[in-house]
Write a structure and sequence with these properties.
By secondary structure, this protein is of the alpha/beta class. It contains 16 helices and 14 strands. It is globular and about 60 Å long.
């Protein structure tokens, strides 16, 4: 099949999209991805491992708009025009695969125009993802928009059981879980070999995840190194973390890094930290990439009570579950720093879970089954 993917990111920062596109290509499909590169950080067109990428950059007018709420309609229009141009020219695709709700409107218009199949790949419940950042009426509109657009979808893909349960309440379309699991780095447990006990966090920098406070909390602990890489999605917090990191010699802020660096850096660390406000609906239902990365690399994770991550961590005994505050997190870091045997035990448990269940080979089989069902 010829498949057109839609993504509102530059592509090189989203490992899930890369893994899915690569799995489809390896299975004999042809994949092109239209992406939104807001800050014009990448080439307009390129090919990555046979995945063709077509990027849309912000115009001068778009740059002067206050935020993406106003930019989204322009992005949708530009992406739709590019999709139809591809369809009528070099790439008559059979399916359009929309990553997250902020691309689904494009996909619906493309389906109506071309008659192609429509896949909705919901990495998040979008309304819950934005509820802390926008007025309530926008959140309500987003939920209603999703219910309206999902009627046109042929198959829903999502990331875990809590999201599957949600989508069952708003749609009778078939749903498949494809988790954000990673390739196993090594089936044998390999301890890290760092001069200083190394904690790593790679992901979104936000208040919900205790940034920038986490920098100040861990920056004061001796004999450790705290490595942070953050996405520029929330620019204000990115800058706050960048500035806070400069106050501590044991904190290393990497900025935004491409997805192909995430697993190697995680593998070289001693532990992963991934906390999230338990009062947030998103925290209660998400399965953080950090947990799946920790499992794949055989590293313990520190997460907090009241989250889906905590439930999985306790079930597989692959990390420490703490309270959502700096004192509890710091105590857990010190406990693991001073107890290498505990680190090894938790790391081995996580790796075993990854080998048996939480690995990309198992997930891509389910993705390919979705597409086999469309043909």
């Amino acid at each position: 099949m010829k498949i057109l993917m839609m993504l509102s990111k530059p592509f090189m920062t989203d490992l899930r999209v890369y893994n899915e596109a690569k799995a489809l290509i390896d299975a004999g499909h042809n994949v092109t991805v239209i992406v939104w590169d807001r800050r014009k950080e990448y080439k307009k067109e390129e090919e990555v491992n046979n995945i063709r990428i077509k990027r849309i950059h912000n115009t001068t007018f778009m740059k002067h708009l206050p935020n993406d709420i106003f930019r989204n309609p322009i992005w949708w229009r530009k992406a739709f025009k590019k999709a139809i141009k591809l369809y009528e020219g070099e790439f008559k695709f059979d399916a359009v695969h929309c990553h997250d709700l902020d691309t689904l409107k494009i996909g619906v218009k493309v389906k109506k125009k071309t008659g192609c199949k429509l896949i909705y790949d919901a990495h998040e419940i979008f309304g819950y993802m934005i509820e802390d950042d926008v007025p309530r009426f926008i959140v309500s509109y987003v939920f209603s928009m999703e219910k309206r657009l999902i009627k046109y979808v042929d198959h829903i893909i999502t990331v875990n059981e809590p999201l599957l349960k949600y989508f069952k309440t708003i749609s009778k379309k078939p749903i498949t879980i494809v988790m954000n699991c990673k390739d196993i780095t090594s089936k044998k447990y390999i301890p890290s070999n760092n001069d200083n006990f190394t904690i790593i966090y790679i992901g979104t920098l936000s208040k919900r995840r205790l940034f920038p406070d986490l920098v100040h909390g861990l920056g004061k602990i001796s004999d450790i190194k705290f490595i942070i890489a953050g996405k520029k999605e929330k620019i204000g917090y990115y800058q706050l973390v960048e500035q806070a990191s400069k106050n501590y010699k044991n904190v290393d802020f990497l900025g935004e890094i491409p997805f192909n660096e995430v697993i190697p850096r995680t593998f070289k660390s001693d532990i992963i930290v991934s906390v999230a406000n338990p009062n947030s609906t998103k925290s209660k239902i998400e399965t953080p990439n950090k947990l799946l990365e920790a499992m794949a690399c055989g590293k313990p994770i520190i997460c907090n009570k009241g989250t889906n991550a905590a439930e999985l961590t306790e079930r597989f005994n692959c990390g420490l579950v703490v309270e959502y505050n700096l004192k509890s997190i710091s105590e857990a870091v010190i406990k693991l720093r001073d107890n290498p045997l505990l680190c090894e035990k938790l790391g081995k448990n996580g790796l075993k879970a990854a080998i048996n269940e939480f690995n990309w080979d198992k997930q891509k089989e389910k993705l390919l089954a979705v597409y086999n069902g469309l043909q």
